[in-house]
Amino acid sequence: MKIHLTLSMGMLVLALAPAASSIDFTSAELSSEESTRQLYERWCKKYPDGRGCKDDDKSGRLDIFRSRAQEINIMNTGVIHNRRRLNEFSDITDDEFKETFGSCFLKSREELLEHDVITGDQFTFANDDIPDYVDWASRGAVTQVMNQGSCGACWAFAAAGAVEGIHMIENGILMQLSVQELLDCSISRGCDGGNAVKAFNHVIDADGIAKWEDNPYVATRLNCHKAQKVVTIGGYKFVPRFNETALEQAVASQPVVVSVDTTGWAKHYRAGRVFSGPCGQRPGHQALLVGYGTAQEQDIDGSNYTIDYWKIKNSWGIHRGEKGYYRLERGYEETGGLCGILRFAMYPVEPIELID
Ligand SMILES: *[C@@H]1O[C@H](CO)[C@@H](O)[C@H](O)[C@H]1NC(C)=O
Ligand SMILES: *[C@@H]1O[C@H](CO)[C@@H](O)[C@H](O)[C@H]1NC(C)=O
């Protein structure tokens, strides 16, 4: 859904695109063991959270990296513009990608059915007057990007982020909350996956959640234990599905948990551009939607076009994506949004501060 542009750019609200930041390389760099290793070292400098980057013996990872790079090199044969590049996922296999970045959001049949009957009567943002551009990160309602590591706790990070956001917006307090508590105490499969709904239920049932520093994240599930609660919520609501306007209205009011399918990201994601697919429609990942906007990008023929995007905060560390954030193309409402982003979105309400 690129919109080719003939009008003056002054008419649009445009966000500055971050510099392209994936790694281009030449086939010569794959010609010897030594040069491939050097390319991998260069990659590790850019993506230090890569699996083998901190090991002295990188040989296992190097093999996977080499075959990824060879794959890209073949696809780039004869291509001059828009060459594919190495990205933050170039050191892992398809199976590893799915396990680490694509399958931490679990929903039962019952939950989906329940969500299907919730048509949005509870939705409270029916406000036509929404801005063209929203970014809660730049408005100070979003805490720093963290890294879930090899634990599938995306759902807990997303839920904590949503509570952090509304706590800041309504109570004026920006405080990192304990993802570890959600991981330990929510009804979930812990590091094997969960659902932000269960995390919100825990906060409601336990009368609150502790702050991050009182129960810091260790990327493994531990016994649920008590730390002092700092904020609670009165409940949570679902955003009506397949409705782009509703999701825009929701995130214009506060950060929102969204569920996305990451299929296709491993091979096709490129920082510095809005991700426009290919992507599946079966969300296996949850993240925090923090805004939306319109970016200007350049086509291979040099022409400019604008592209509408959603901006999400991920829990994959600051060295991935755009300083930890990812932009996905907005649109495709009829099919559930790109990567299924319009399918399963929710937000907490009535944050109550518990200590002073
Ligand atoms: C989408 O949601 C808005 C309220 O946010 C509502 O006015 C509109 O009718 C909905 N559209 C559809 C197709 O249901
Ligand atoms: C596209 O935008 C860039 C940067 O704003 C500008 O330098 C370039 O001239 C534009 N290209 C066309 C064809 O208008």
TrEMBL record:
In the UniProt record, does the keyword Nuclease occur? no
List each coiled-coil range.
Answer: none
**Record PANTHER family:** CYSTEINE PROTEASE FAMILY C1-RELATED
- Please report the stretch or stretches of sequence annotated as the Peptidase C1A papain C-terminal domain: 130-349
Under what name is this protein listed? Peptidase C1A papain C-terminal domain-containing protein
Q: Any one Gene Ontology biological process term?
A: proteolysis
Tell me if Lipid metabolism is a UniProt keyword of this record.
no
Instruction: Please provide an example of a Pfam family that matches this protein in its UniProt record.
Output: Peptidase_C1
Q: Which family does it belong to?
A: Belongs to the peptidase C1 family.
Alphabetically, the GO molecular function entries are:
cysteine-type peptidase activity
- InterPro entries linked to this entry: Papain-like_cys_pep_sf (IPR038765), Pept_cys_AS (IPR000169), Peptidase_C1A (IPR013128), Peptidase_C1A_C (IPR000668), Peptidase_C1A_papain-like (IPR039417)
